[in-house]
Every structure is written in C-alpha cells, then in structure tokens.
User: Fold these one by one.
Assistant:
Number 1:
Amino acid sequence: MGMDDQRSRGGGTGIPAAVLALLGGLFHLIGVAGGAVMLAGDDDLGRALLTFLLHVIVAGVLTTGGVGLILAKPFGRAFTIAGAALALVLYVTVLVLGSFGIYFLGLANNTLPIGYTALLCLPAVATLVLASLRPTARWVTSGWS
C-alpha cells in the first residue's frame, strides 16, 4: 500500500481537518479562560457569562470532533462540521455587531482590533471545508486500516 492508497481513504483531508479542529478547540479553551477572568472582574455579568459559555460550547464541540476524526469515527466528522460552522457564525456575528460598536466574546473590543476576528474566519472555513469533503467521509468509514 502506497501513499495514494492512504489518500484515497481520506486521510489527506481527515487528518488536517482533525488538526484544525483541535487547534480551534484549543483556541476556544483559551477563550474559556478569558471568559472566566471576565466573570471574575467584569461589570457586565451577562456579557461575561455569554463569552464564557459560547467558548465552552465551541471548544467542546471542536475538540470532540477533532478527536473523533483522529479516531476515524463518523461522529468526529459531524462534530467537526458543527463546531467549525458554529465558530464561523460566532466570528461573523462578532464582526457584524462590532461594526455597530457592540462588542462581545472578548474578541473585538478596544484592545483587540476587529480585523483579528476576521482572520479567525480563515481556519474555521478551512476546517469546515476539509471536514465536509467526500474523502473525509470515506476516512471516517474506512479509517486507518
């Protein structure tokens, strides 16, 4: 079995999707920590709680998806697609609201430029595309064997 056989099973898209999902999950875990700090010291408890909970959800879904993809399990692909789509919706929401001067998620405020959030869309889109491709679907049915 050569490298072409491995690629035909979808490892060429499934593994990069898994790595991106895990990196996205790690990024949002950092956001969880930031949300916890906000909860401790922010005057706006609602905003701090929303930031904390959204980061927890996205981190959990992306991390579960990344691990599932590494294990070549169908749930991993589903969770990765859902997590990347959710992250993308959050980033776009932050961008739209930020354009109206409404900041949440701790990503766009006076300390972090809104362009930073726009850059976050790139890995989310890449994760979503890689996880959605047909070879990744094959990966989660044939796996490492």
Number 2:
Amino acid sequence: MADFDAIYQDEVVDEVLEEVVALAPEPIVIRGAGNMTVFGLSNRFNVEFPAGLVSRVAPEEFKATIQRINSVLKKTLPLNVKWLFCGCICCCCTLGCSLWPVICLSKRTQHTLNKLLEWENSHLYHKLGLRWRLTKQQCDSNSMMEYVLLIEFVPKTPIYRPD
C-alpha cells in the first residue's frame, strides 16, 4: 500500500531551477561618480551606458533613469552636507546628538531613491527582464561601504509541464 503521508522531492523541478539560476548573467554595478559622498551615498552616478545592457535597453532610457536618480541626489545631498557640517561643529556639545538630523535625512534620501527605482522597475525594466536596486557594497580600494546601483537580470522561469 502506498504511503500517502510521505513527501517526495521532485528531482526534475530542482534541475530546472538550477538551470534557470545558472543562465542569469552577473548583475551590472554602477558606482557613484561624484566628488562628494555622505554616509556612503555619492552625489551623482555616471550616465555612461554599460556594455552589458546592449540590446536589452535603449541607451536613452538608461540615461533618463540615471538623470532622474541624479536629480534626486542633486536636490537632497547639499542639505545633508550642510546638516553634517553643523552636526560636526556641535558634536562635542551635544554628545553626538547633533548628527541625528543628517542620519535621518540620509535615510530619507535612500528611501526616495528606492521609491524611484521601484517606479522605474514597475513601469519599464520588469518588462525587459531587469531590476534596479540601490545596495551597499564594499569599496574596491578600502574597507569602506558605499551605495551602488545594481542592475540585475531577472530570469524568465520556464513553465514546468509534467509529461
């Protein structure tokens, strides 16, 4: 008699998933290209079109997205720098509490960028099999962390039909 309560692992599904994961290329990393960084977030990103996106997205669309990101950074980071400067001057008197406004403003900037990337993904990039994210990565030259734009290739999952 068959054991109806037993759970068996389907080996074919695992093989298909491993093939899908193996087919996705490495994500494209876009590092900050500005001359000023506040808490790891650069004041601008480079609009140069990466070679890995050729035939996936139009260079104009890529440039427009980067320009929207840079416009958000252009509006928010100068205020963050002013608060950081004031916070550093008053840091000894306030026992570090004067740095809280710049930390909150930095979090708000990250949140705004994440919302913008979410909108871009839902309106254009998900249809093209791409996903943009703002993520922290370690710098190549030292142990500091920086925020980078990560463009991931979303694999299209094949429909599994048992024979």
